[in-house]
């Protein structure tokens, strides 16, 4: 919003006083743009009653008004970082401003929540022209009668106080903003150097990896700081922090081993979230992973549509094909096989697997079991026989947490042991054990990984009921409702914020309007182009305040879990990755 509104702050205050005591619906007459003293204000949508979803408002502050130095918004990356910093300042300031001003949500100021990572979000956006803030506001009422005086205080006094104290440059913030910028730019620099050093991930010495709990992502107080084993230490350069030393996880096959509760899964989760940039103080600011890293797990009961899982499962009972495998209720092994092939189809270059959440029968078939159950009676080729082929045939690396099967020593390039969160390089010992006590198991599944098929997908047409667009609803990071369909998100472990799922839902709704098949890779490329431009409003029926940037891999994961998804039969396309 750059044009000057015709209506003023004073006019809005007068109108609110006049509405005092009138029916709540009279608020709707105030929709529009207003010129306040130091910013522009838009009342975009008025809630139906004080108990309904809050009204939508937006604030526009030009750079001439906000006085933020150009150095903080001269690049797309810095625009996102500044927006993230301001978002967090506003979240802290809102409790000091909002108060109960009547019935229902009266007086509430609602803002989309953040997380421990830095993402582009629609709640606060910084461009080359200025800063936009989007909020939900509970317009005050007593019962269903307008509380005009309370509304005047909220919109023309308290809201301006919030804006001027958070969206305008504060010299006292300079150090904190600089740190926010430096943290993200250093992480980007670390991630950019992974490829040239043949690494898939990097964990800086001194990083704090444990979290307070499964529901509290804050760093665990007094946790043991991470320290890389000398043999796997690498030093990377950053623009602000200088040389940074830590563990470099090489390409290929890496095992993370150790006793229970010694930090194996914690390290793997840190790597999984290393695809994102973290805020200062998170403890994982200097933990980075290849941007095409995907966490894989088994998901009993998930829907699978037309996936070629033949590299792992070559036949099913009753002669059912596994080259175009579909089910509404996948088993552990078929779901994990599908997850792997879908991730590769979407462009994954690194797979992360934790044995705790994997299907045992897809991971290993030891010598004793091979002896008891002949291969012609077992349709599953275990991952142990495919993990090296993934790398040799397609350049896809794997990092596995493994505590129960030493057979993987034979196929691993590197073995890292965790002992009370302290990392040790035990590759030499593991290889010696494997040589002294060979598994003597027979390799299964042939000399090559097998076919990777690109599918042509037809997105479903979602039931809108009596509404113009399909319903979109998220329940934390567990369920996404799209139309009448509920999508289980629990197996998509690299979703960080529910509003990422919400944004993905709106992207799917936008593209399903084309009513034509899409090659999955092309569909992902098209949608991610819009995300890269941060043009979220093009994906939604109206400007929204609760969307977050997402990766192509979580987009693909949600598309693949649509139970009404269809595969259009066309010749398969094998791409050498």
Any key phrases for this structure?
577 residues; alpha+beta; 7-stranded mixed beta sheet; 6-stranded mixed beta sheet; 14 helices; 27 strands; 28% helix; globular; disordered C terminus
Briefly summarize what is shown:
The chain is an alpha+beta fold and 577 residues long. Helices cover 28% and strands 20% of the residues.
In terms of topology, how is this protein built?
Blueprint: E1 7-8, H1 9-18, E2 32-35, E3 40-45, E4 55-62, H2 63-66, H3 76-97, E5 109-110, E6 124-126, E7 130-137, E8 141-142, E9 145-146, H4 148-166, H5 174-192, E10 199-204, E11 233-238, E12 242-250, E13 253-258, H6 264-273, E14 287-289, E15 293-296, E16 304-307, E17 325-327, H7 332-345, E18 350-354, H8 360-363, H9 367-372, H10 387-394, E19 397-401, E20 414-419, E21 422-425, H11 427-436, E22 456-458, E23 472-475, E24 479-482, E25 485-488, H12 498-512, E26 518-519, H13 520-532, H14 552-560, E27 566-568
Parallel strand pairs: 1-2, 13-19, 13-20, 15-18, 18-19
Antiparallel strand pairs: 2-3, 3-4, 4-7, 5-7, 6-7, 8-9, 10-12, 10-14, 11-12, 16-17, 20-21, 22-26, 22-27, 23-24, 24-25
Helix pairs in contact: 1-4, 3-4, 3-5, 12-14
